[in-house]
Amino acid sequence: MRITVESKSLAVSPSATLPCVSTAHGAPRATTLDQPNIQELLSRLYKEEKAADAQARAKEETLAAAGSLDESARAALLGKRFLAVAPEVGRLLYLLVRSRRPALAVEFGASMGISAIYIAAALRDNGQGRLITTEMNAAKAHRAALHLEQAGLSDLVDVRQGDAFETLRGVDRIELLLLDGWEPLYLPLLKQLEPALVPGCLVIADDAAKHAAKLIDYLAYVRDPANGYLSCAIPLDDGLELSIR
User: Fold this and answer.
1) How far does CA 244 lie from the centroid of its chain?
2) What span, in angstroms and rounded, lies between the C-alpha atoms of 210 and 125?
3) Which of 11, 36, 160, 169 might form a disulfide with 4, Cβ 3.0–4.6 angstroms?
């Protein structure tokens, strides 16, 4: 697996490839998501997320009560949170990747790599495709790479650490795009990547309901047919906006 930090690449020990489970003709076929190691990993990460988020909220309340919750402190606390997709959103991502069968999927906002696990598991079961995921926070990018390695999916994913406007520059022929980073960047990043979107590209924006106020311009843009998208809201967890280019 390769972790790209701006223009530099950091070597990560490759993990063994996890093959799809094959069964006799006509028998049900287990998905990669059903593999015990991935189920155990996701369960552990979601438990860790719950504890980390509770700790961050408690710290935030303490700082706010003391009048010390400035933007720097808020950013530091945000950097410790997982900000992971909910399990039901992860399963939807898996289904969308399985049905779209992208040769290239791109994710903005890897965080700890949970959404990347769902996407890469679908790519494994498709028997084709790769994922480029980008994350500004260096510690989170390394955690994402580690978790993908533990899942046996690191050979399918390129984790790029740094500013997405730079790390995704030059990427071409995107067939599925997940926007799950800082919401005010969704629209400018989408516009930068539009020349690279193939016809029929799926664009998935997370937190579309929870952070609707931050996404007014983005939602107006993808919901306007004049901009070349057909779009709809999906009322799942914090809300998704699913668009096709």
Assistant:
1) 18
2) 31
3) 160
Instruction: State whether 38 and 113 are in the same domain.
Output: no
Strands (E), the chain: 2-5, 8-11, 104-108, 130-135, 157-161, 174-179, 197-206, 230-234, 240-244
Ramachandran angles phi, psi of 166, nearest 5°: -100, -45
Which parts of 82-167 fold into alpha helices (H)? 87-100, 114-126, 138-151, 164-167
Please, what is the Cα angle at 169 between 165 and 172, to 5 degrees?
130
Phi, psi at 39, each rounded to 5°:
-60, -45
Closest to 243 in 3D by CA, of 223, 216, 213, 217: 223
Do both 168 and 140 map to the same domain? yes
Together in a domain, 100 and 70: no
CA distance 12 to 7: 16
Name residue 62's amino acid. Answer: T
DSSP of 93-116:
HHHHHHHH--SEEEEE--TTSHHH
Q: Rounded to whole angstroms, how far apart are CA atoms 188 and 218?
A: 9
Q: Which of 78, 113, 132 is the last residue of a domain?
A: 78
